[in-house]
Design brief:
Strands 3-2-1-4-18-17 form a six-stranded mixed beta sheet, with helices on both faces. Strands 8-9-7-6-13 form a five-stranded parallel beta sheet, with helices on one face. It has a three-stranded antiparallel beta sheet with strand order 10-11-12, with no helix packed on it. It folds into two domains: 217 residues, NAD(P)-binding Rossmann-like Domain (Rossmann fold), CATH 3.40.50; 215 residues, FAD/NAD(P)-binding domain (3-Layer(bba) Sandwich), CATH 3.50.50.60. Helix 1 packs across helix 4 and helix 1 packs across helix 13. Strand 8, helix 11 and strand 9 form a beta-alpha-beta unit. By secondary structure, it is α/β, with parallel strands linked by helices. The protein is built from 16 helices and 18 strands. The chain binds flavin-adenine dinucleotide. Flavin-adenine dinucleotide binds next to helix 1 and helix 7.
């Protein structure tokens, strides 16, 4: 009997697991179950629309999906359309690959005011994620505060200051493109609790900030050290990368004489303390910090920035899933290097937390495949026939891989000139294309 494996989630970690299983010598039936009709997780809904080459990895995932032993079951939400326990009863192994879709909180007063939008929602909005189509962020503000010093913060800042010409050849949604073009934004404040040495963005992303049509980066040169301090512990590679970032920030500081209509201000040593205003954000109160033993410590000196839009990009967590052992403090599954129970495995961000690049998920997938093949000699459960019968009996509409190819072709055909696709941004619209209703 083949081993029947269900993989819940079709982001990189799910696909890398499927690939490793499909390429093994063992006879496996691999079913990728995804709550949205479209596969690829954050490749489609997280990676910045102006970084199309990064998204090319999804072509490899599509090759995996097209393999005979792999099926795709889109539009099936585990925990809603079928429980994890029910799935475990049908499959010899279940791999949870659901990522970390929730924003970490700032944990400061006023955070729930209208106009504070976490990066998961904001990025989801401009990337056409069905959960965030109605977000309608109010961009009628001169100042925007982006909190965080990682690549997601940079992505958001860059997207908000790009011109229509710079964005129109990307797969940003038409709605987001129109809203960004009409925005009143002139100044983006990138606020980081720690210093330029600790900032986590990669140099490629940082450099892009100095190469924009309508926007110039600003930074106070006096806060930039000549190099990462020798006594700061890190690998040689990290030291090289961070010194490169310091060089780039220094170039930005030197080029600051140039003036363009928009500015991105890199502000370090600044921790958010309170979101100001009534129901709606009117400003943010910040405290200056110094870094002591790698941690940002408040100095007691405060300042305020007037703004109607605060976008925290301070990391992600998962909310877990009923039946999955879960550490609520850390927002990740509890597992022994991926083994989370009998026939239950975790991979990707739900296993490790939200760190690393797309390729970091590959070893996870390979490890999970190895564990499954070590733990299960032979299959004994019904697998996909039981899943299909269960979902359709309950009135569910499974979106299979051929359906996805139909949606993919439709999106490409509907693209504005020069763009790779115009995304279908609601589940209903996707199903309408498939079923012609
Ligand atoms: C804004 C942003 C930009 C990024 N940009 C880059 C980049 O440029 N380069 C790079 O290398 N990395 C980038 N990353 C990191 C990269 O996207 C992640 O490493 C990777 O996507 C994590 O893979 P995953 O499979 O764990 O999770 P995800 O990609 O989040 O996939 C999880 C999948 O599970 C599905 N799912 C969730 N719950 C259920 C459920 N109950 N039932 C069924 N399905 C479910 C989700 O819909 C989703 O499709 C970025 C991340 C973010 C957040």
């Amino acid at each position: 009997m083949p081993i029947h494996v269900a993989i819940v989630g079709s982001g990189p970690s799910g696909f890398y697991t499927a690939e490793a299983l499909a390429k093994s010598d063992t006879d496996c039936r691999i079913d990728i179950i995804e709550r949205l009709p479209a596969p690829h997780g954050l490749i489609r809904y997280g990676v910045a629309p102006d970084h199309q080459t990064t998204k090319n990895v999804s072509r490899n995932f599509d090759k995996t999906a097209a393999r005979g032993e792999v099926n795709f079951y889109g539009n099936v939400d585990v925990g809603h359309d079928i429980s994890l326990d029910e799935l475990r009863a049908m499959y010899d192994a279940v791999v949870i690959a659901i990522g970390s879709p929730e924003d970490n909180k700032l944990g400061i007063p006023g955070e729930d005011k209208d106009g504070v939008i976490g990066s998961a929602a904001f990025v989801g909005w401009y990337n056409g994620h069905p959960d965030f189509v109605d977000l309608a962020p109010d961009l009628d503000t001169a100042n925007v505060c982006v909190i965080g010093n990682g690549n997601v913060a940079i992505d958001i800042a860059r997207l908000l200051v790009k011109t229509r010409a710079e964005l129109s050849h990307t797969d940003i949604t038409n709605d987001a493109l129109d809203a960004i073009e009409a925005a009143a934004i002139t100044d983006i404040h990138m606020l980081g609790r720690r210093g330029p040495v600790e900032a986590k963005y990669t140099n490629k992303e940082l450099r892009e900030m100095g190469d924009l049509e309508n926007c110039v980066p600003r930074i106070d040169a006096s806060i930039l050290p000549a190099a990462v301090p020798e006594d700061m512990e890190m690998s040689d590679r990290d030291r090289r990368l961070r010194n490169k970032n310091l060089d780039t920030l220094r170039e930005f500081a030197l080029g600051a004489a140039e003036d363009l209509p928009k500015r991105v201000h890199f502000q370090f040593f600044a921790a958010p303390r309170e979101i100001l205003g009534g129901d709606k954000v009117e400003g943010i109160r910040m405290e200056r910090t110094e870094v002591v033993d790698g941690r940002a410590v408040g100095t007691g000196e405060f300042f305020e920035i007037e703004t109607n839009l605060v976008l925290p990009a301070v990391g992600y967590r998962s909310g877990g899933m009923e039946g999955l052992p879960f550490n609520d403090d850390w927002g990740v599954a509890i597992s022994d290097d991926g083994r989370a129970g009998e026939g239950l495995y975790v991979v990707g961000w739900i296993k490790r937390g939200p760190t690393g690049v797309i390729g970091t998920n590959r070893p996870d997938g390979q490890e999970a495949a190895k564990q499954i093949l070590e733990d299960i000699a032979e299959g004994s459960k019904p697998g996909r026939e039981a899943l299909e019968a269960f979902v359709t009996k309950n009135g569910g509409r499974i979106v299979d891989f051929d359906d996805w190819l139909t949606l993919d072709a439709h999106e490409k055909a509907e693209a504005r000139e020069g763009a790779p696709r115009e995304k279908l941004i609601t589940v209903a619209a996707m199903l309408r294309v498939l079923d012609g209703a």
